[in-house]
Amino acid sequence: MMKALVVGSGSIAQRHIRNLRKLYPDAQISCVSSSGRHISAADIGVNCVYQSIDAAVFNKPDIAIVASPATHHLEHAKEILKANVPVLIEKPLCVELSELSNFPFNAGDRKIAVGYNLRFMPAANVVKDIIDSGKLGRISTAFSEVGQYLPDWRPNTDYRKGVSAQKYLGGGALLELSHELDYMLWFFGCFEEVSAIISSSGILDIAVEDTVDALFVNQVGATFHLHLDFLQRRPSRSLKIIGENGTLIWNLIKNEVLFQGGGAIEEVLFSNPGYDRNEMYVEELRRFIEYTYDDSKFDSTLSSSLEVMRLIEAIRMSHAEKSWIKIEAIK
């Protein structure tokens, strides 16, 4: 019988609980509230609620998922790893790169994975395969954008009180929308320099940034544009890659991948507008469990997530110093 522990009881934690139950109907699932508030096992669909992580790991779970606010990710993961339990940490890995100085980790540790779930979308893997195949030829530029009006994320709640709007919980566009940073590293490899602006428009009356714009350069001088925001009233999410042989466009809203060649050439490489987006979370969870038991591949590792945090730190530094920052210098 699968025994799983989920730390946290918010929306993403409850999604993981439902998906665990879907994959393993007879699993024994336990939960610890990250805030200490009272939660009912029946209300969130678990077998048992523990008051502390120590008590939960005494029950010897097979796997654990840390879905607490980002400011607690490493603290909670550390307690679980001490019991030698494999852990999936929700993105981002942490809030500040400096937090890792007191975290006993090995970048290749197979007991640690990070929840950058876009990697488990079929469309994302089509994009990855096209880039790796060389079909585009030499890439000169790419544009990555995501924007969605924060009050629309969870319409029945006050967005100002949510994790995304709270700095002390790891909110703000840079951390909340760091999926785009992760897939850019996955698709294109490491970057050399970044110039960035982090903005708070005041439109949403929140004390975190609502917009981030960054320009990355790689070793061969290709440029990569990134835009993140909490402001667009109509959701927008896409990646456009310009190569010498054509342009690849991944529309994440339409769940479509297009190749545009010379003249009027346009080829639909992937299209599934009815895709159930929960499936990428299910696949992430299934692959994580396989990863902990054997030599199965799991792309979103501790090592790759450290690179995301280095980019985040470089973006912050570039904004603060109003200058280009060498990413390799970020430790």
Give your account of this protein's structure.
- By secondary structure, the chain is of the alpha/beta class.
- It folds into two domains: 3-90 and 109-116, 3-Layer(aba) Sandwich (Rossmann fold); 118-276 and 301-329, Dihydrodipicolinate Reductase, domain 2, CATH 3.30.360.
- 28% of the residues lie in helices and 25% in strands.
- It is built from nine helices and 15 strands.
- It has helices at residues 11-23, 41-44, 53-57, 73-81, 122-133, 173-176, 179-188, 278-293, 302-321; strands at 3-7, 28-32, 48-50, 63-66, 87-90, 112-115, 139-147, 193-199, 211-217, 223-229, 236-243, 246-251, 256-260, 266-271, 325-326.
- The strands form two sheets. It has a nine-stranded mixed beta sheet with strand order 14-13-12-11-7-10-9-8-15. Strands 3-2-1-4-5-6 form a six-stranded parallel beta sheet, sandwiched between helices.
- Helix 4 links the parallel strand 4 (63-66) and strand 5 (87-90).
- Helix 7 packs across helix 9 (302-321).
